[in-house]
Amino acid sequence: MTKLELEKIAVEVRKGIITGVHSAKSGHPGGSLSAAEIFTYLYFVEMNVDPKNPKDPNRDRFVLSKGHVAPGLYATLAQKGYFPVEELEGLRHIGSMLQGHPDMKHIPGIDMSSGSLGQGFSAAVGMALAAKMDGKDYRVYSLAGDGEIQEGQIWEAAMFAGARKLDNLVLFVDNNGLQIDGNIADVCSPYPIDKKFEAFNFHVININGNDFDEIAAALKEARETKGMPTAIIAKTIKGKGVSYMENQAGWHGKAPNDEEFAIAMEELKKAGEALCQK
Is the pTM of this model over 0.85? Predict the structure, then answer.
């Protein structure tokens, strides 16, 4: 798949994020938008997954540790064909399968229920260990927030993964610099993130997480790394793709009103049209 094709899908993912959160009148657009390229590349290039067989025992696994950015994952799964795009309009509605956080029992393509910050990565580590113990060659991917890594459980899981040399495990840290209370450096600084993961025996790669070429190169490097798990520290823009949401902590967990929704969708429509002209 070409970079241009991936960029077009990422725009559709962003439209799905805004559509779902607006329809729900609640949710987390900022961190969903910042991770759109990561979601898109994982599901459309990197991972061995099949929407027609979502429980394939040999599939690659993905665990969204920062479960509150479920709108981003749901929008990606819809684009991939796990369920109709129209389902996104039911986000957080009673009777809809799309809950505010990922639910593995009711949503096709969700490998682990998550939402309690810090816990998802532990589940991913367990899956990677299981693959090793069972002699399977599937890989496990996880996405954590840079605010989320203030949780101690992240580091307990990292210590275990490094000690067990889980080279089938890749953790993305979405380093958009903002959490619900503001700048991560002011709330409880996790910096230097890369040096911390290196100390836990991870192979560490720093990238621009909104650039498909850099994501592709990092994941190739991760596949070639043996004897240790990989942490990809992805510098991103919170709220990317919607001008008034970019780098604004206030959009961490707030839905756009009707006027804001129209502005966002128009911006994304123009972004998509511009890509079609290339």
Answer: yes
Q: What is the pLDDT of residue 278?
A: 87
User: Quick one: 67 exposed, middle or buried, by C-beta within 10 A (0-12, 13-18, 19+)?
Assistant: buried
Could you identify the residue written with the tokens 């209370």? 181
Q: In CATH terms, is domain 3-276 a member of 3.40.50.970? A: yes
Cα–Cα distance, 145 to 64 (Å, whole number):
10
H-helix or E-strand spanning residue 231: strand 230-235
Per DSSP, the three-state class of 205 is strand
Instruction: For residues 61 and 110, give the distance between their C-alpha atoms in angstroms, rounded to a whole number.
Output: 9
**pLDDT for res 132:** 98
- pLDDT digits over 142-152, tens only? 999 999 999 99
* Rounded-to-integer distance, Cα 212 and Cα 97, Å: 30
Cis-peptide, bond into residue 71, ω within 30° of zero: no
Q: Per-residue pLDDT tens for 16-55?
A: 999 999 999 999 999 999 999 999 999 999 999 999 999 9
Q: What single string gives the DSSP state of each residue in 103-139?
A: -TTTSTT--S---STTHHHHHHHHHHHHHHHHT----
Identify whether the C-beta of residue 142 lies closer than 8 Å to the C-beta of residue 201: no
Q: Where are the domains of the chain?
A: 3-276
Strands 230-235 and 203-208: parallel
* Whole-number Cα distances in Å, 11 to 34, 110, 135, 190: 12, 22, 38, 30
> pLDDT tier at 116 (50, 70, 90 boundaries)?
very high
What's the pLDDT tens digit per position in 156-182? 999 999 999 999 999 999 999 999 999
